[in-house]
Amino acid sequence: MERLKQAKTSLYKKAYEMTLKVCGRVVLNVWRICKSGLKLKNYDLENVILELFKNREPVFNNWTLTKLYNDQQQKHIVLKYFIKRINYVDKIINEMGTLTQSSEQTRLFGCEFESTIMRGSQFRIESVLMRITKKCDFLLMSGSKIQVSHQKPLQSMPLVLEPPKLFYVDPVLILDFQSLYPSIMISHNICYSTCLGHIDDIFKPGGKKRFGFKIDVDIELKKLFHGKTKQEIMNDILIAPNNVVFVKKHIRKGIIPQILEEFLNTRIMIKESQKLHKNDAYIQQAYHFRQFGLKMFMNVTYGYTAASFSGRMPCSDIADSVVETGRHVLKSIIKNINQNKEWGANVVYGDTDSVFVHLLGRSREDAFKIGNDIVEKISNQFPYPMELKFEKVYDPCILVSKKRYVGHRYLSPKDKPKFESKGIEIVRRDGCDAQIKIMEKTLYELFMSKNLSKINSYLQKQYAKISNSHINLKDFILAKEVKLGKYSDIPPAHAIIGEKLEKKDPMKRPKYGERIKYLIQQGSDLDKIKDIACSVQDFLENKSSLNVVYYITRQINSALQRLFSSFDIDVRVWYGNMPKGMTKANLNRHNEQNIMSTKRKAMKIQNYSLNKYFKVNVCLICFNSSEIQICGNCLQNPATSLYLLQKKIQNIYKTKEDLEKICKNCASMENYEIEEVPCEEYNCDFLYLKHRQKEIVINVLPLLKKFVQVIQENSVDENF
C-alpha cells in the first residue's frame, strides 16, 4: 500500500475523478472513458452493459448490500455481485478497444500511453510538431499569457447561413468537403513557417515587424524577393482573403502542410490495407483506430492555431486565413450553384463546409444525377486535396434553424429511407423518452403521408394516454448533467436532487458530469420546477403522481411547436381543443370508503373507487358502458360475475408472481426464498411494472374482494 498516494486534488483532477494515483501503474476511470466514447442518456454501469452486451443486470443499493453482507448465509450474494461487476469493467475496456486505441495513438504520436488518454489534442499535435521541427532546425515558441493576450484578436468566423424555416417536400442535396480546413492548409501552404504576416502591417527599420505575439520578428523581404518584378513576386506568394501573405510551396513548403499531407496519404493507405484483412478482427480494429487517430489529428490542427485562450502557440493570422479561405470557398460554391440554370438548384443553407441544395419539382433520381454533376464540375475548380463530395439526399426534410434539421436520408435512388436528425430533441439527451418517441412517430407520419389530420389524431390519443396514466413511467424520466460546486446560490432541479442523494448516502455523491435521473411530480400551479422535481426512488416510495401538464406542455408540445411553426400550426391549440372528458382520479389511500347498507348494494359498489386502474364509466367485468362500476346486467348474473371477479383476482396474483420470477432470474436468486428482489435498476421496465402491480395488490385486491363479498351477499338475499 506504500505505492498508493493521493494526488493533489486540483479542479481538473477532481472533475475527472483522478484523485487516486498508483506509482508505476496507469489508473483508468472507465466511467469517464465510457462517457467520452459512447452516446448514452446515462452512464451507469448497468446501462453501459445493456448498450454493449444487451444484458440486463440488477442494481442493489448500499443499504441492501450491507444487510446481505452481514447475513452469513447471504454474504456470497454480495461477493458474486461485485465480482460480476469487476468482470464487466474488464469486458467494457476490451469491447470499446480502449487499450488498442491508446496503443495505436502512442505509436502514432510518439507520446506515453497515459498521455493519450489523459491529455488533450494540443499535447498530441505538439508531440508530432516537435519531432518534425527538430529535423528542420526550427524551435517551437511558447508565449506567456501576457504575450498571447497582446496579439491581434481572432476576427473571422465560419460562414453559417440562416435557413428559411420550411418543410421541403422536394429533394434537398447535402454536399460537403472532406476535412475542409486541413485541405486548405495543405493546398494553400498555410503554416507558421510560410506566413509573412498581414499585408497592411508596418515594417520597422531592419525589416522587423510584428508576427503573432512577437514584436521583433525579422523578415528579410529584400533578400527573399531581391531583383524580382511585381508579377514574379505575386507568383511566389499567396494572399489570403483576410490579406495575410504566405509564400508558395516552391519557395518553402510549410511544416504543417507536410505533416497533414503525409497523414492524409497514410490514412488512405491504411483504409486500403483494411480491405486486405477483412477476416482478421484484431487487424481491422487496429487499423481502424490508427486511421481514426490520423483523422482526429488533422481535424484539430486548425484549432491548435486558433486556441488563443488556452493554447501555447496561437496565431490569429494563420487561424483567420484558414477561416476566411473557407468562407470564400463556400461563397463561390453557392454562387456557382445558384447561377447555373441547367441544374435549376437553389442553396437554402450553408454551414462551414457544407451546403444544402433544394431542387424544386425534381424527382429523387434526378437529384442524384444533378448532385454528381455539381460535385464533378465544382471540385475541378479547387486545388488538391480540396474536394467537394456528394453525401446524401434528404426527401423530404425540415430545416428548423442553424445546425437543426431533420429528414429522410437516401444514399442512392433505390435506397430505403432512414430517419436522420441533427440538433433537435430527438438526438439530444436532456429530454424524456416519451418526447423522443412521440416526435419520431409524428415526423414519420408527416414525411410518409403529409396528412396533418392523422398527426392531430395521433397526438390526441397520446395526450389522452398520458392524462389517464396509461404510460410507462420510465419514458418520463429526465436526466441532466450535474456539476456540484459550480452552481450559484440557486442551483437547478437536478443539482438539488444530487445534493439530496449525497445527504442520504455520502457514497452516492454524483460524479462530476454525471447525469441525474428525476421526475416532475404533481404540485400546485405556483410551484417552481425545482420544488416539484424528485428522484425516481422518492417518486416511487411516496407514490407520487406525474405532473401531466408539465410533460405535455413543456416537454412534448414545446418540442413539436418548434417543428410545426413552419406550417403556421400551433400544437398548443390542438391540446387545448382536445376533449378532456373525465380523467382518472388518483386513488385516495388515506380516506376510508363509506360502506352503505346491504339494501343498497348497487350504490355500495359504486362507492369503491377504481378510477386509477380501470376505465371510467365502464363496467369492470363486461367493459360495457355503465354509470356504476358493476352494471345491472352483471349484477343479475351473480354466478358469472363472481367467476370473472375471482379470475381477475387470480390474474393479479399470477402477474405479480411472474414479474418476480423474471427479476429473480435476472438477479440469479431463483433458489432463494425472498418475497421481493431488492433491485433498483431504474432503467428497467420491469421495475415500474412491479411497482404498479404492487399498488394494484395493495389497493385493488381488497376492493375486488369486497365486490365478491357484495355479490355473494346479494345472491344469498335473492335466494331467500
From TrEMBL:
Residues 619-688 form the C4-type zinc-finger of DNA polymerase delta domain. CDD domains: POLBc_zeta (cd05534). Its cofactor is [4Fe-4S] cluster. Keywords: 4Fe-4S, DNA damage, DNA repair, DNA replication, DNA-binding, DNA-directed DNA polymerase, Iron, Iron-sulfur, Metal-binding, Nucleotidyltransferase, Nucleus, Transferase, Zinc, Zinc-finger. GO terms for molecular function: 4 iron, 4 sulfur cluster binding; DNA binding; DNA-directed DNA polymerase activity; nucleotide binding; zinc ion binding. Residues 113-565 form the DNA-directed DNA polymerase family B multifunctional domain. It comes from Pseudocohnilembus persalinus. Its EC number is 2.7.7.7. Pfam families: DNA_pol_B, zf-C4pol. This is DNA polymerase. It is found in: Nucleus. It catalyses: DNA(n) + a 2'-deoxyribonucleoside 5'-triphosphate = DNA(n+1) + diphosphate. The keyword Iron applies. GO terms for cellular component: nucleus; zeta DNA polymerase complex. Belongs to the DNA polymerase type-B family. It is an enzyme of class 2 (transferase). One of its GO terms (biological process) is double-strand break repair via homologous recombination.
